[in-house]
Amino acid sequence: xxxxxxxxxxxxxxxxxxxxxxxxxxxxxxxxxxxxxxxxxxxxxxxxxxxxxxxxxxxxxxxxxxxxxxxxxxxxxxxxxxxxxxxxxxxxxxxxxxxxxxxxxxxxxxxxxxxxxxxxxxxxxxxxxxxxxxxxxxxxxxxxxxxxxxxxxxxxxxx
Length: 159
Known about the structure:
Elements: H1 3-17, E1 20-25, E2 33-36, E3 46-52, E4 61-68, E5 74-84, H2 88-94, H3 97-102, E6 112-127, H4 131-139, E7 149-154
Antiparallel strand pairs: 1-2, 1-4, 3-6, 4-5, 5-6, 6-7
């Protein structure tokens, strides 16, 4: 299995385990913000977020997202486009009690918006330092590239 394929598999497992990331519009001059990803296993290269209509991302456009796994050993940077897509079927599919905590009016909350982020490309890193590499780090030795982990730049996050 290639590094890229392995990294793609690990990406979705890690995001399911800790679905939080930073997302921001490129060129807007505004900072990225933390959001909870709503994953839909049926849609490759698409991430979903429930946001308020007044959220700075609601205007859409070119965007970048960054993800760090719970264990801080997997990293991803996504480039793509964000836009509001208030498809009622997707809202129903992704809705949960956690989302409802943020939108007390439920699915018909007047401030509810479903933000769609379509990934054009991604860069993925997984730190998988070997035992030998960990010992070298502990005692100040030099880590060889074969001991660093995996990295890939991909045009799709499909497995």
